[in-house]
Amino acid sequence: MKIEYQPQLVEEAVLRKISGNPEGKQFRKERDKIYEIDDKETRESDFVKLNQNWFQRLGLANAIFEVLKNFPILETSVARLVFFKSSSPKKQSAELFVSKEGLNVNVKERQSILVSILPELFCEGEKFLKFLRFEFLHIADILDLDFGYKLEPQKDVYDYLFQQRYTILWNTTINGRLYAKGWAFEQERAQNYLIFKEAFPLEDSDAKKFFNYFFFGNSHNHDELSLFAKKTENWIVGSKQQTHKGKCKLCSFPTFKLISEFPESLLGKIRKDFEDFEQGTQICQQCFDLYDSRNTVN
Mind listing the pLDDT tens digit for each residue in 265-292? Predict the structure, then answer.
């Protein structure tokens, strides 16, 4: 697998790492020599080479090689791993890209991993390792035929909420596997549980049971996660009482909390998707928050 780095990303990572570094004097000496070159093209090319050399010298790529050893499926299934500068912390991620060109070549040659990252993350040790492990484990799942990942397009509010729940559930299994290897800690497990509980409005006993099943269990796959995200109530058995207060009229998910009073501004937003929606109709907290956030933004 070929690893590539955006020159701007490399330069900014090196400048951050070299600041206050004992080798900073040598770096600046080499850089100053390049400024003396008259030919612009040659000068720019030498700056790129300088930054690449120091990127390796400072060990900024070491975490990448360390983490890749734990995910051999990435090496065997992907041709390119490309790092480029992210526009914000929230947009840092890794995505699998499959080219539609060259359909006559093998699948590996058409697959690339695109990693959007801020330069400073290269310098943040354990935080960088956590980011790589979390993102690469997602990619490994997508590539794993046994996991059976399928991209499900979003068409309406139901699809949006399903995708939210599916992502939280998938992240739970990811964090559970990282936890089992000692790469995540109890505080992170507790935070993951709160996110899970908010997404799946279950009684405490059921929430803990199913969270533990997905967090501590191993052989989960796409279909299982999808089924739980869509039909959570079907997993709850053995209770003689009703397991939820009702279903949301918008997304059809079962819930213990139904809301039926809305400000007029929010009603207008909902009616853009559901023309006959009336005050007093019962919806879940997740749908309320979804449309409330749209109302706030607009």
Answer: 888 888 888 888 888 888 877 778 778 7
Residue where the block lists tokens 């790529």: 61
Instruction: Look over the chain and give the mean of its residue pLDDT values, rounded to a whole number.
Output: 88
For 282, the token pair is: 């019962």
Identify whether the C-beta of residue 3 lies closer than 8 Å to the C-beta of residue 84. no
CB-CB contact of 175 with 188 (8 Å)? yes
Rg of the chain on CA atoms, in Å: 24
Residue with token string 């993951």: 192
For residue 157, is pLDDT > 60? Answer: no
Q: Tell me the three state secondary structure of residue 242.
A: coil
Alpha-carbon gap, residue 103 to 51, rounded angstroms: 36
Q: Which secondary structure element, helix H or strand E, spans residue 290, and what is its range?
A: helix 285-297
- Given a cut of 60, whether residue 24 has pLDDT beyond it is yes
DSSP letter for 26, please.
H
Eight-state DSSP code of residue 118: -
Spatial separation of the C-alpha atoms in residues 166 and 168, rounded to whole Å: 6
Q: Give the contacts of 202 (CB within 8 A, at least 6 positions apart).
A: 210, 232, 236, 256
CA distance 113 to 108: 11
217 Ramachandran zone, left/alpha/beta (phi>0; psi -120 to 50): beta
C-alpha triplet 29, 30, 36: angle, nearest 5°: 95
Q: Of 254, 19, 263, 225, whose CA–CA distance to 138 is shortest?
A: 225
**Predicted structure pTM score:** 0.80
**How far is Cα 212 from Cα 220, in angstroms, rounded to an integer?**
13
pLDDT tens digits for 99-116?
Answer: 887 666 788 999 999 999
Residue 36 CA from chain centroid, whole number:
44
